[in-house]
Amino acid sequence: MSDPARTIAFQGAPGAYSDLACRNARPELSTLPCRSFEDTIAAVHNGQATFAMIPIENSVAGRVADIHNLLPSSGLYIIGEHYQRVNHFLLGLKGAHLHQITHVHSHIHALNQCRKLIRELGLEAVVRIDTAGAAAEIAAAGDPTQAVIASELAGAIYGLVTLRANIEDAAHNTTRFLIMAKEPIVPHPKSGPTMTSFVFRVRNVPAALYKALGGFATNGINITKIESYLVGGRFNAAQFYVEVEGHPEHPNMKFAFEELDFFTHEVRTLGVFPQHQYRFDRSGDTAAAASEEPV
């Protein structure tokens, strides 16, 4: 048994991309596979793990379904973020050759993200629940005509070999994860660039959202993410999940939240955490690309 104090939980089988994200973000921790996102969160509450790694969005597939509904009721706090580059591998049995492969198994998103190779090789796609679980099934079945799209880590865990590497259609394929814990870990206001995540509710009336978020505009705060969804089975009120750049202790953030409180109810902070380096790397790439445009 691993030490719960040095364990991070994730949804999926060993070798899943969430497992890879855990190992890259927190290499000093052991990883704990869980069947569902609910089980992943429960592992922290039950003391099996100290942290949970939860995917929230992918640059190709978009938002991860139901996560924004799950976060506010999880009872956990966001303490960090991690951006994981998704490199898909076509994996097969040892001794198998590419020309033998007739079927490729994987999660629906992984299959959709590798359409060019699947079409090029004339393979029949088979949808599975997850990438790493599919890799385990292919390894156990022992059929050299069956391949799987999964991570290189999954191949190493289940004894599969790489038939083709980096087969994703989009070079930018990246998944953003949130690292969550039972207690908040708030960085110092002067420690560096920070994100603040929160939820609030407004009545479904004209200009309610405009008024609620106006304070962030007038105080120069960048809203990087906003998601809305109905709660409680009602159509007359909406809950919003929001992420902004800044620390709650910064003066402009205090002013913005004062205005937010005036126009909304049930405002709740889900986490204050350091910005990941990926944000700065991407902004640098964008600036460099813009400077290369012809004038």
TrEMBL record:
Residues 197-275 form the ACT domain. The keyword Amino-acid biosynthesis applies. Pathway: Amino-acid biosynthesis; L-phenylalanine biosynthesis; phenylpyruvate from prephenate: step 1/1. It comes from Defluviicoccus vanus. Residues 7-182 form the Prephenate dehydratase domain. This is prephenate dehydratase. It catalyses: prephenate + H(+) = 3-phenylpyruvate + CO2 + H2O. Keywords: Amino-acid biosynthesis, Aromatic amino acid biosynthesis, Lyase, Phenylalanine biosynthesis.
